[in-house]
User: What shape does this take?
Amino acid sequence: MKKVSKITTFVIVLIIAVLTANVAVYAYENNDDVYLNDTADFLTADEEEQLFDFMVTTAEATGWKIGVVSTAEDYSDNGVIRAAENYFDSYFGSSADGVLLLMDSANGNYVLHIVAANGARKYISNSDAIRIFEHIKPSFEAYDEFRTAATFLDDAINYRNGKKLPRQVNIEIAFFFLIAAIAAAAITAGVVWHRYHKHAKISATAYLNKGSINIYNRSDRFVREYTTRTRNSSDSSGGGGHHGGGSHGGGGGRGSR
Amino acid sequence: MTKCPNCGAELRFSPEKQKMLCDYCASEFTTEELAEADKPITEAAAAPAKSEEQEDREKREFAEATRVYVCNNCGASIISDENTAAAECYYCHNPVTLSGRVSGEFRPARLIPFKLTRPEAEDVFKKFIKKKWFVPASFRSEKQLEKIVGLYTPFWLTDCKTNATVSADAKIIHTHTSGDYTVTNTKVFDCDRAAYMNFEKIPADGSKKLNDDFIDAVEPFDYKELTEFNMNYLAGFMADKYDVPKTDILERIKSRVLGAATEVLKDDIKGFTTVSITHQSVNLIRTDWEYVMLPLWFMTYIYKGKIYEFAVNGQTGKIAGLPPMSGGKFAAALAIIFFVILLIGGFVSGFLGG
Assistant: This one.
């Protein structure tokens, strides 16, 4: 009898332990203001819990609906916009104000897309969303999805409070202008130097008696013929931004990791 | 013996080249070219020349009515009429000394009288300098204009009959797209052109001091206004005595004719996408010269030890000359261009960077 009692006690303790553990793993519960969906299983249970708390805080601070979704699809640019907007609309409704981050990674490539819906668009424009993408990209490329999402939430609060991220300089364009500046200065130097050091050449054709021209040999001999084929480039590089439309805006970009 | 149609020296046959050669001016002629050279270049050239007696009389009168001043610094010989005294060298601004009369051979056959007055020439110069941003401020001094001189400059006007040849690689290129490929079809041709052509009155100055490219840059002159030389035209002006004989300008004329003949023959190669010259040559098979004086408002400016020459065509007002350049202004302009583009780049890259 004592043995049965011990077993019963053990089972009860075990059930309580399991139930307690379950409560620890799924301590958060999505509500009307916050939606966390880690389909791709990027986050640990602790990270999910912490992130959810931060999302709740963000929702309170901004007055927006806050969503973070991870997937492992291989989206096209338009596909990821549609997917992110569908996640937002299906959970919060299409007229809700808010932001949602979609983190997607498959086959070594990734795409991050930020949705700013309705009222949130006043604070986060498409170019702001691309700026946030550039801000969170390094964390995602370093496989730190928790930091990626946390940074996104931090940025959302800052934008809601009017603190925008500084503009990032596009290095490629800056380099192009540096080369252009050097080239323009060099061309100007060449032209001016030439004008101050070389006299204009006057052609002697002005003294040619055109009526006197007697062309006595005119021959054009065919020598050879050749054909070359070059493949047209159709490569497209990663990165860059894509934009939503309608009452939803946003942006993001893709890359590989 | 056959005489060289370019310089009058005797020609000899070269068995090696199978051509007639002139040892004096290095001209070469084929039989066909010598036959072509017999034909006059211009109608004027075929006209009867003045009698020897008349020419002698004109040369004597010229010698009696002119004075020569010599610059002991640069060696310039300045001719003036007997009533116009020269005090300083038009070229280096040093005092000149009267050295006597000039020989009659320096009398030009014809000249173009000055049409542009001194104030008009000064205006042309002022406008020219005003447009030159990088000229040092001290260069714009009004005192500079006091040194402007009306100078009849010696020129050899050359009529020449030429035989020019050109060879070229020409291509017809067609491009079309086929699927993912751009297909380029190229047909290559060897093209040859050869022609006789005459040039009339190509000017070349007969002064060693004057930079040839600089003097060429004030061309053209309107030869319709060439008139018989008369001492009255010299009054109030200077004239430079030539020191480059006509045979010495042959190479210069040849070089100019080569460029022009190549241009003409290249234009005749038609129907191709690209034409690139692989060989060009010109042979002067007959040359006739006329010694004339052409009007230039001339000015030299000595700046930091270097002589800067300016000339305004005394007939048309066209100006030539290379002013000094201020290194500071030049560097500042380049820096402005560089930083303005960089600034625009900063804005654009920041804007596009998001």
Notes: The two ends of chain B are 87 Å apart (CA to CA). The longest strand of chain B covers residues 149-178. The helical segments of chain B are 31-37, 43-46, 52-65, 118-130, 212-216, 250-268, 327-352.
